[in-house]
Design a protein that fits this description.
- By secondary structure, the chain is α/β, with parallel strands linked by helices.
- Among the domains are: about 1-30, no CATH class; about 35-120 and about 240-285, Ribonuclease H-like superfamily/Ribonuclease H (Nucleotidyltransferase, domain 5, 2-Layer Sandwich).
- The chain is about 35% helix and about 10% strand.
- The protein is built from 11 helices and 9 strands.
- The chain has helices at about 1-5, 10-15, 20-25, 80-85, 100-110, 120-130, 140-145, 155-175, 205-220, 240-255, 265-275; strands spanning about 35, 45-50, 55-65, 65-75, 95, 115, 180, 200, 280.
- Strands 4-3-2-5-6 form a 5-stranded mixed beta sheet, sandwiched between helices. It has a two-stranded antiparallel ribbon with strand order 1-9.
- Strand 5, helix 5 and strand 6 (about 115) form a beta-alpha-beta unit.
- It is extended.
């Protein structure tokens, strides 16, 4: 554990060389850590999925920087999230960065839990659609609205922000509904994202996506849950910085320090890191083997008779010492 979770090299973690340490600790990779589900109902639980490879992902639930549970999956789908959520009691508020699989799981397993979308991720999504410096004046209003999301601390400021969003729609709402028809194009290139048989598309598609994202979150009351009077004095987070900067950053640093280990060892190392930072870790019962020397596999007993496999040359197989002209080199 000193070598796995700390900056201790292998030749200093044990007695001997690095190869000796790997041989003596090879049995440790078979131990699977566990955490205890206490059943405590938390005021806030943060949920996030981190992709540590192109085909496997870790779904993590944390509270105030402490890991509550985790679940392995290939991608963030609803069934994987449901397996994780069913192991925990529903909290009062869940803070997440969004995702269709997580939303579907929350509606089924935690229907009475309020949601707070990470405001930093909302800003990133809007910046991805409109960039940070739009060219036209009509497009500059939405990035400015998204940029001020993380500066709202009171309900009055939240009401003012919603009013500004409504005013922008009153002035520039026609841009969201504008359409472009293929038959009316004369010498204008068709956007690359348009399907071949598509007859029309929204002219300002990226602007529409950015606005509908903020409008939908405001309508569903997922933007300013942390300012709700029902949660006064609970200190509900408005971002997932606790799990992003605490848990996910630690996992990436762990894999960076131990790059090169096999994939099944990477997953076990991640589990031990999560176990070390868990809310209620279960101490495993460790029973090291009596000897760490590798055991040789016994040779199979062959029945009496001619050998089925041998190293001798036979004339039946066309293998023998050739003589004469053909045997010369």
């Amino acid at each position: 554990m000193r070598w796995l979770l700390g900056p201790v090299p292998q030749h200093q973690a044990g007695s001997g060389s690095a190869r000796t340490f790997r041989r003596h600790s090879a049995w440790c990779w078979q131990l699977a850590p566990m955490v205890l589900i206490t059943g405590e109902v938390y005021d806030e639980v943060q949920l996030d999925g981190i992709y540590l490879s192109w085909h496997w992902c870790a779904l993590i639930a944390s509270h105030r920087g402490k890991v509550l549970a985790w679940q392995w999956c290939d991608r963030e789908k609803a069934i994987a999230w449901r397996v994780l959520l069913q192991r925990l009691p529903p909290p009062r508020v869940v803070v997440c960065d969004g995702g269709p699989g997580l939303h579907a799981a929350l509606k089924q397993d935690w229907p009475n839990t309020r949601m707070q979308r990470c405001l930093v991720h909302v800003q990133r999504n809007v910046r991805t659609q409109l960039t940070s410096r739009p060219r036209t004046q009509a497009l500059r209003g939405e990035p400015q609205l998204a940029k001020t999301l993380t500066r709202i601390d009171t309900q009055e400021e939240a009401a003012t922000w919603l009013a500004h969003l409504n005013d922008w729609h009153t002035l520039h709402g026609h841009l969201i509904k504008a359409r472009t028809y293929r038959d009316q194009l004369r010498g204008t290139a068709v956007p690359v994202w348009v399907r071949p048989g598509q007859r029309w598309w929204y002219t300002h598609d990226r602007l529409r996506r950015a606005y509908r994202l903020m409008e939908r979150l405001a309508r569903e009351e997922h933007l300013f849950t942390y300012l709700d009077p029902d949660f006064t004095g609970l200190s509900i987070s408005s971002t997932t910085n606790s799990i992003e900067g605490g848990v996910n950053a630690g996992l990436r640093d762990l894999l960076r320090r131990h790059r090169g280990i096999p994939e099944h060892h990477q997953r076990r190392a991640i589990e031990w890191w999560l176990h070390a930072h868990a809310e209620a870790p279960v101490r495993p019962s460790i029973h090291p083997p009596a000897s760490t020397k590798p055991t040789r596999r016994p040779l199979p007993d062959e029945p009496d008779g001619p050998a089925r496999y041998d190293t001798a040359v036979t004339a039946e197989e066309g293998l023998w010492h050739r003589r004469g002209w053909a045997g010369r080199t």
